[in-house]
Amino acid sequence: MLLGESIDGLDIKPAGTYVDVTFGGGGHSREILRRLSAGGRLYSFDQDADAEANIAGPHPVPAQGKGATFQFVRSNFRYLKNWMRYYGVEYIDGLLADLGVSSHHFDDAERGFSFRFDAPLDMRMNKRAGRTAADILNEESEKRLADIFYLYGELKNARRIAATICKVRQQQRIETTQQFLQAVEPIFSREREKKDMAKLFQALRIEVNREMEALRDMLKAATELIRPGGRLVVITYHSLEDRIVKNVMKAGNAEGKVEQDFFGRVETPFRLVNNKVITPTEEELNQNPRSRSAKLRIAEKK
Fold first, then answer.
1. Whole-number CA gyration radius for the chain
2. Cα separation, 22 vs 72, whole angstroms
3. What pLDDT digit, counting tens, does each position of 126-144 carry?
4. pLDDT at 108 over 60
5. Which partner from 35, 81, 155, 173 sits 20 to 30 angstroms from 195, CA to CA?
6. pLDDT of the residue at 284
7. Using alpha carbons only, what angle is made at residue 153 by residues 148 and 156, rounded to the nearest 5 degrees?
8. Sheet bearing 17-20, strands edge to edge
9. Residue 75, CA distances (Å) to 51, 143, 150 in order
10. Which of 222, 155, 154 is nearest to 10 (CA)?
């Protein structure tokens, strides 16, 4: 997604140290390595075992480097600072984050990310830990479910959805995507059914993987790790994560709290490289309709 624009935004120094916190299919990492030379280093994060398998895929990732060092880190990117300390990295020259869910997650029926398939309601990026989507649907209170659907899915009828789920689960535990759909389908109008279902699944996925907390932790660590002149490059897909990224780039914190010095000048660790967000071209939109909501933001450390 936005491959050329995001890699160009990193302004890569051939012997620099870079981090790709969302390895996924390896496309961004391959392009970063292609621009690195001897002395350059790339650390790529992903908590998903399926992503790790892409390292040795049809286009092997390490083979793209010209003497650069490549290190895959099987971990949630919220632990960025700990891992950099583990590898003895004090500062980095740039960090890239593509916050979208990889297409293979939506296409893998067994993972439960999509309502196109009848599958167990899992939705965990890391299948080794944490609660599943089914656990949350069956165990959280009605109020908490309503909050999840409203905050993370921006659904106006969140309370009604939560009440319906609680009523259905009294009769039978909701374990599969089909059971979930049957429970909530009567609530949605035909015209908005697919859009609202997508928002509902998005909300559950965000809660399962604690995505907002992880994003805040990662951006805080990135702010501390990126050296002056280094770049922070982030691709977002929904308003919640985009708001956090925008706040960090403009104010230096996820809440967007602006601090000023004695003379009233805004104190922020970053300088915006693109004041206006970069969006996909028509050509890319035609190739991947899911990219319609993508926004690219780039900032440079002062």
1. 20
2. 11
3. 877 789 999 999 999 999 9
4. no
5. 173
6. 87
7. 90
8. 69-73, 41-45, 17-20, 92-98, 226-236, 295-301, 270-272
9. 11, 31, 29
10. 222
The 10s digit of each residue's pLDDT in 64-87 is 677 899 999 999 999 999 999 999
In the DSSP assignment, the letter for residue 24 is T
The rounded distance, in Å, linking the Cα atoms of 285 and 264 is 42
User: Using CA atoms, how far apart are residues 141 and 202, in angstroms rounded to an integer?
Assistant: 19
Q: For tokens 């296409």, what's the residue?
A: 107
* pTM for this model (two decimals): 0.90
Judge whether 295 and 275 are in contact, CB under 8 Å.
Answer: no
**Residue 111 identity:** R
Tell me which residue of 212, 211, 234 sits closest to 222, measured CA to CA: 234
108/116 Cα distance (integer angstroms): 10
Q: How many residues appear in the chain? A: 302
Whole-angstrom distance, CA of residue 170 vs CA of residue 296? 44
